[in-house]
Every structure is written in structure tokens, then in C-alpha cells.
Design brief:
Layout: H1 9-33, E1 37-39, E2 45-47, H2 48-64, E3 69-72, H3 73-77, E4 87-95, H4 97-102, E5 108-115, E6 118-126, E7 131-135, E8 139-143, E9 157-158, E10 169-173, H5 179-188, E11 192-196, H6 200-206, E12 212-215, E13 219-220, H7 221-233, E14 237-240, E15 256-257, E16 260-263, H8 266-273
Parallel strand pairs: 3-4, 10-11
Antiparallel strand pairs: 1-2, 4-5, 5-6, 6-7, 7-8, 8-9, 12-16, 13-15, 14-16
Length: 277
């Protein structure tokens, strides 16, 4: 039994990965039948897949770690937000609901464990493309078909970000780009720009396939924590606009994030902050 209050972060990450995988069949059943969506109070869409996946994940986390609070997107939307301690879980049962509705496959199931304001373990599962990224002290990727358990450690690929080239490859949100993002990317003078949905963008940077992902449009902590855990463990950084690491547990702000930038090579982040990029 893994101790969720312990220090074996890689073991915790593997359990979070298995929990995310358990929610995959429910999400893909709804994806196959193209169920309807509705708008929540904040205007964002929600589907039955969101609710089914969240119920599975929350039940498993509550059974395995009964003393650790769970902040889950749909429960929070309904007004059920627990008081969090030093450690708590963040759950986004379907990140990229717009991509799910658009049926482009770019959606993920996200589960993360936060300690003292930073994500220390997380899993990002993209069931439509059969890939899972997960991280504790180290970051990994594995193939994961719908309904499968996490593969053995021999089939995990360790992730590492790449040193920033002179001309960067940038990722941008497919559904939430804005003028601030456009201005930032123009200043960087990127060589290539790729649009993508959901937390997959964090993982592409963690894999060393891209260098930077700015996000200035609103996000919530459950949107970012699992991908942030993967990217940090792979050697990258997720920084607020003042250059400090993105922090978690902002209950007074309803767990809302400010703008941030994901960097594969933190040295390039420092250069950007000082105007030397």
C-alpha cells in the first residue's frame, strides 16, 4: 500500500496514473456516443463524461487516502470545496472538454497531489491517443489503451526537456488564445508554433518536443497541476508572470490561476525575464 503522506513520490505517481486509467473507459464510452453537453454557471461546458470520471477518481482517492482533501472540478462547480491542508489532491476529470466535444482527441484526465503549494506527483491520461504521462521525482510516459492498467516499469519512457534552441518551438491553446499570448510569442520570435488542447501541451514540452507554452487566459488549479508535476519533474518550469513558480492552494481565489508560462529550459525563462531572449 502506497503512503500518500510519504516521500515515495514515484510510487504515488504510479498509483495516480492507475486511477486516471480507471476513469478512461467511462470517458471513452461517452466519447463514442457523442453525448450532449451543457454550460456551467461560468459558461464553460460540461458533459456526462466529466461527472462519471470524477466520481470514479474521487471514490478511489477517498478510499486510498481518506485523510487528504480532494478538490475536484465538478464538485467545486457545485459549491463543494473542502478545506485543504499541506497536502491535497486536485482532479480535473476531463481537461479539454471543448476538444472532447469537437471530437479531436485532445482531452485528458488529470490527477495531482499538491504539497505546500507545489504539485509533487501527477498523472495526465489522454485516452483517445492511448498515452499517459506521470511524474513524482522523475517523469515518465507510457502507452495506455482504454481499460488497461499501467504498464510495468520496463515499458515506461523517462522524460527530459531539451536545451532551448536559438529559435523556439511554441505551443498555444487551440481554444483559448488571446492578444497577450500573441504579443508574447511575437516578442520571442518563435521558429514554429503548434496549437493543441488540454494538458497535453505541458507533456509535449516535457517530452522535449517543444520549448515554451504561454497561457494568459484564465485557468483553474485542477487544469494545470498534473501537467505541471510532469513538466517540473522532466526538468522544466511553470512560472507566473513575475518569474516565480506557479503556486497551488489558492482557496481565497477559488483555486484560480493567474497567467503563466511553461518552459522546457528554465535558463531560457531567465533570459526572457531579463529581456535577453
Amino acid at each position: 500500500m502506497v503512503d500518500f503522506n510519504g516521500d515515495d513520490r514515484d510510487a504515488i505517481a504510479a498509483i495516480l496514473a492507475d486511477i486516471a486509467l480507471e476513469a478512461g473507459p467511462a470517458v471513452m464510452e461517452e466519447y463514442a456516443c457523442a453525448g450532449q453537453s451543457r454550460a456551467k454557471a461560468d459558461g464553460s461546458p460540461v458533459t456526462l463524461a466529466d461527472h462519471r470520471a470524477e466520481a470514479i477518481i474521487v471514490e478511489r482517492l477517498a478510499a486510498l487516502a481518506p485523510g487528504i482533501a480532494i478538490v475536484a472540478e465538478e464538485a467545486a462547480a457545485a459549491g463543494a470545496t473542502p478545506i485543504v491542508g499541506r497536502r491535497f489532491f486536485l482532479v480535473d476529470p476531463l481537461d479539454g472538454t471543448r476538444e472532447f466535444i469537437a471530437r479531436n482527441g485532445e482531452f485528458t484526465i488529470n490527477v495531482a497531489l499538491v504539497e505546500d503549494g507545489r504539485p509533487i506527483a501527477g498523472a495526465v491520461y489522454a485516452p483517445a491517443v492511448a498515452k499517459i504521462w506521470f511524474a513524482g521525482r522523475s517523469a515518465f510516459m507510457a502507452r495506455a489503451e482504454t481499460g488497461a492498467r499501467l504498464a510495468g516499469a520496463g515499458d515506461w519512457r523517462r522524460l527530459r526537456t531539451r536545451p532551448a534552441p536559438e529559435r523556439l518551438t511554441a505551443l498555444a491553446s487551440r481554444s483559448h488564445c488571446d492578444p497577450d499570448t500573441e504579443s508574447f510569442l511575437a516578442r520571442l520570435g518563435v521558429a514554429e508554433r503548434v496549437s493543441a488542447g488540454s494538458s497535453i501541451k505541458f507533456c509535449v514540452v516535457a517530452e522535449g518536443q517543444a520549448d515554451v507554452y504561454p497561457r494568459f487566459a484564465p485557468t483553474m488549479e485542477w487544469d494545470t497541476a498534473a501537467g505541471d508535476a510532469v513538466l517540473r519533474a522532466a526538468g522544466g518550469a511553470v512560472l507566473q508572470l513575475d518569474g516565480a513558480p506557479l503556486v497551488y492552494g489558492k482557496a481565497a481565489q477559488s483555486f484560480r490561476n493567474g497567467g503563466f508560462v511553461c518552459w522546457g529550459d528554465p535558463r531560457r525563462a531567465e533570459a526572457s525575464q531579463t529581456g535577453k531572449s
